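Page 37, continued from 36.
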């Protein structure tokens, strides 16, 4: 394992904002009550900036602006081609600033800089994709010759409330902003309070790209204040939420009296199933990447690895050795593969699971802080073997660089283990038996399956989970469906 020196612990990018504000109706503003919250840098856990702490009054103001822009502004009435041009300009600007965006995101979230760069590019791609899709969009028409004709009008819905988590903040915001704006809605974004820095950059990008005033509004703040007020606002008919399953449940309940449209992208505890006939080198590389990239703070992380008995011992030995070679380091260092976890609260949660794991299973790698990192939220990639299916580290989402490995003897047992948790977001299957690969994928309870491959996603495919991992699918036309009303017009001929 390559250790880094404890020398330059704090890398502070130039040009950080002196405070982070809301952006409402085309202007940067503080909270109505002047309240702020501390934003920490995960390498030192020191406050580096104060952000405006939005409350109901700020949400009310932002929703009113978004409503006005929807009712009176040009955005919902523009031709798809015109909106598409603005979205392409947004993508161009994001692309041209990818290094700066990555630098700020990495500083704020603790993600390794190389991976933050990939996420910035993905954000640009999300805008480009929906810019193209909205132009290519065809509406359905159905004919019964001589009798009847029917066609579908697609209409933007109104003010979309977008609530996002901290793990890949800028990219996940783009995943909602892209389709919500492409379809002609106006939006209020409530980003995660741990990582508000990159979200504050959207305002400048959108202004430069020519997005009309009031179409995009940003309110920072805590979930229970700003997020809650957005969910309960009667003039916000749509909520797209990404975050923890239990927050999703709460939001579901709070939105119910308003009968809002809801899209829920929630937690995961995704299995990677490795059969004895798999290409072992590829499976090990991919399952290492699957749980340790993005600091393990990835909703689709393959955080449980199920391994067929004949190769189990060899797999565990090689996997532990490879986990030990993963480079833990300062987020800004291009050599870093695992950076600092986002926040001391989250760090405490991950470390407490590691302690639980030590009493539940066999620790074969990591389990402590890396040498030379006395401050900040650093954890060594941690591997537990012989994990029983009723162990908490097998059942519960840890959302950090911690993986549970469990042996199995038959396909039936593998399926039972894979499906034996409350979540159902992603699954990874490694086998060279074609029939087994397809049949097993079909039987697995997961919204997305990667066969002999890793986490690369085509933007046209559905994204979402089953069971406690979410409700509704976004991605490709499904996102367009979520952000539009589809009105059927029937004509008798
Ligand atoms: P979280 O649920 O704590 O917070 C997510 C967002 O919801 C934040 O902006 C937060 O302020 C807000 N929020 C919190 N309470 C709220 C309330 N009562 N009303 C309205 N808004 C509220 O999640 P997190 O810790 O930020 O993110 C990690 C979680 O997100 C993990 O469970 C992870 O699996 C999940 N996630 C899922 C996906 C996916 O696509 N399925 C992607 C990324 C992350």
């Amino acid at each position: 394992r390559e250790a880094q020196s404890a020398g330059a612990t704090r890398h502070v990018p130039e040009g950080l904002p002196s405070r982070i504000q809301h952006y409402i109706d085309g202007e940067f503003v503080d909270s109505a009550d002047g309240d702020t919250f501390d934003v920490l840098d995960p390498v030192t856990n020191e406050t580096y900036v104060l952000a405006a702490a939005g409350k109901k009054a700020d949400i009310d103001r932002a929703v009113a602006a978004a409503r006005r822009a929807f009712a009176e502004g040009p955005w919902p009435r523009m031709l798809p081609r015109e909106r598409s041009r603005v979205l392409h300009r947004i993508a161009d600007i994001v692309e041209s600033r990818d290094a700066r965006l990555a630098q700020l995101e990495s500083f704020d979230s603790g993600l390794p800089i190389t991976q933050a760069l990939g996420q910035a590019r993905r954000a640009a791609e999300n805008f480009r994709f929906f810019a193209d899709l909205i132009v290519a969009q065809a509406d359905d028409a159905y004919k019964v010759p001589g009798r009847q004709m029917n066609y579908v009008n697609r209409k933007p819905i109104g003010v979309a409330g977008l609530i996002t988590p901290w793990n890949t903040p800028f990219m996940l915001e783009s995943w909602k902003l892209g389709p919500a704006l492409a379809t002609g809605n106006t939006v209020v974004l409530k980003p995660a309070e741990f990582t508000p820095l990159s979200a504050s950059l959207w305002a400048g990008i959108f202004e430069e790209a020519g997005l009309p005033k009031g179409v995009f509004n940003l309110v920072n703040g805590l979930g229970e204040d700003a997020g809650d007020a957005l969910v309960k606002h009667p003039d916000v008919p749509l909520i797209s939420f990404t975050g923890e399953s239990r927050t999703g449940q709460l939001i579901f309940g709070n939105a119910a009296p308003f009968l809002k449209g809801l899209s829920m992208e929630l937690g995961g505890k995704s299995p990677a199933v490795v059969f004895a006939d798999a290409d072992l080198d590829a499976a090990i590389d991919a399952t290492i990447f699957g749980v340790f990239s993005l600091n393990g703070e990835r909703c689709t992380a393959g955080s449980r690895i199920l391994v067929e008995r004949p190769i189990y011992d060899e797999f565990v030995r090689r996997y532990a050795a490879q986990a030990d070679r993963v480079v833990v380091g300062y987020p800004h260092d291009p050599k870093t593969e695992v950076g600092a976890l986002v926040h001391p609260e989250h760090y405490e949660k991950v470390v407490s699971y590691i302690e639980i794991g030590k009493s539940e299973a066999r620790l074969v790698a990591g389990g402590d802080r890396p040498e030379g990192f006395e401050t900040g939220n650093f954890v060594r990639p941690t591997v537990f073997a012989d994990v029983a299916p009723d162990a908490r580290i097998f059942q519960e989402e840890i959302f950090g660089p911690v993986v549970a490995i469990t042996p199995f003897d038959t396909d039936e047992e593998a399926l039972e283990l894979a499906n034996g948790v409350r979540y159902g977001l992603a699954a990874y299957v490694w086998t060279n038996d074609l029939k087994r690969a397809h049949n097993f994928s079909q039987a697995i309870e997961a919204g997305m399956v990667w066969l002999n491959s890793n986490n690369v996603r085509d933007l046209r495919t559905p994204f979402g989970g089953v069971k406690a991992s979410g409700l509704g699918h976004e991605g490709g036309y499904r996102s367009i469906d979520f952000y539009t009303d589809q009105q059927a017009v029937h004509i008798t001929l």
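The first strand starts at residue 22 and ends at 24. Flag for discussion at group meeting. Residues 1-7 have pLDDT under 50 and may be disordered.
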